[in-house]
Amino acid sequence: MLYISFKQYIQHGGCLHNGKGYDMKNVAIIGSTGSIGTQTLEIARANKDINICALSCGSNIELIEKQAREFKPDIVGVWSREDAGRLKLALADMDITVVWGMDGLIQIAEYKTSDILVTAIVGMIGIRPTIAAIKAGKDIALANKETLVTAGHIIMPLAGECGVSILPVDSEHSAIFQSLQGNKHGDIAKILLTASGGPFRGKDREFLKNVTLSDALKHPNWSMGRKITIDSATMVNKGLEVIEAKWLFHVPPENIQVVVQPQSIIHSMVEYKDGAVIAQLGTPDMKLPIQYALFYPDRRYLAGDRLDFEKLTSIAIEKPDMDTFLGLRFAYEAIEKGGSMPTVLNAANEKAVSLFLSEKIRFLDIYEIIRECMDRHRVIENPDIDSILETEKCVYDYIESRW
Ligand code: NAD
Ligand code: MG
User: Fold this and answer.
1) Could you tell which of 228, 350, 353 is best to mutate to test the pocket of ligand 1, judged by most ligand atoms within 8 Å of the CB?
2) Closest residue (by CA) to atom 17 of ligand 1?
């Protein structure tokens, strides 16, 4: 468990690990049909000691049926009751339980035989299942950053109490985690969180006024789900990642510096008090952080492109433009205000991005919506899960009434 793990880390001889040993690794996935979910299943396909015991998705029942036929989990879940009915019929020849809704998602998350839950679901909807899994003693391979952004103050201590590991899947956080191996937490000077700068790097506000949805969906380096791709274009993603890093690595925001590395070769770095900077480099491929989280502390062979240092002539670094891309600025402000403010940032962003994805608002309106929601919010200190979800609802209702 990373939050208190640095104490454990020293005690356990440099292994951020809860000491569980596995022969066969039983894996549950929430969000199995998305970008992270399908890449997790590619890892499972290549590693015969992974058993997929539970799968869930929102509404892509065609794909989850195929996944169920290939991986033969005990249980699958979808969001709506109607889709669950259809899936049940489609899988009638197989011995697989079909569940639905939040109760179903929670059943998948805490499924009795799983060792680890991959949270590949998008958005704050991941909060309750992640908490349920931690309480049930499951390790978490965490991709679903929105959960940590809004409920990190609950999740990290809970993981500590329950003795489970929270293993980062986000590429930057995995890179930081890898760069921390063999070092002491007290020796960290700062975290250098890299950003690609997204499709609009180098552009000004005037340019951003007229960008279209398809422009914003063209990420230069990564192929990801639609929501995170838009978050990368606004740099809200990097803002959420600063908050995610704060919780995962227990480092204050003033010691988390974002640097733009347009090629996405350096996935992030840690600077230590003696000036040494340790980085993890590689081609942009999410399968590496997913696999590292699943098999930590072991490394396995992973097929794919390698960096070619004969062809690589330079690795560029730039300063982020926080005046044009306000996502980062909002995040530092949300951390400073604390309490429920990161929830407001996240919820306003989720709603604004969904409006942008359905072409109901323009690109710069995303910033305007977040700004307005943060300005009118009165911070609730130390919010519990109900207050977090109530705050999300208030933000959603407000945006629906205004845009
Ligand atoms: P995606 O949109 O490709 O997939 C999302 C998954 O969540 C799908 O399987 C979808 O069916 C499922 N889902 C949505 N609503 C659901 C519901 N109500 N109930 C059950 N399942 C539901 O998203 P993604 O790009 O894979 O991102 C997933 C998470 O990982 C996000 O939090 C994202 O920020 C994070 N992440 C993604 C990447 C990446 O490369 N894609 C990198 C770093 C972090
Ligand atoms: Mg990332």
Assistant:
1) 228
2) 58
Task: Please list the helix, strand and coil fractions of the chain in percent, rounded to the nearest 5, in that order.
Answer: 50, 15, 35
**E strands of 91-145, at which residues?**
97-100, 116-119, 139-142
User: Two tokens at 144?
Assistant: 């679903």
Is the Cβ atom of 56 under 6 angstroms away from ligand 1? yes
Q: What is the pLDDT of residues 184-210, one digit of tens each?
A: 999 999 999 999 999 999 999 999 999
Annotate 283-320 with DSSP letters as a single string.
Answer: -S-THHHHHHHHHTT------S----TTT------B--
Ligand 1 contacts CB of residue 230 (under 6 A): no
Global pTM exceeds 0.85: yes
146 ligand 1 Cβ < 6 A: yes
Tell me, using a 6 A CB cutoff, whether residue 104 lines ligand 1: no
- From CA 132, how far away is CA 108, in angstroms rounded? 10
Distance CA 195, CA 200 (A): 12
Each residue of 254-270: pLDDT tens digit? Answer: 999 999 999 999 999 99
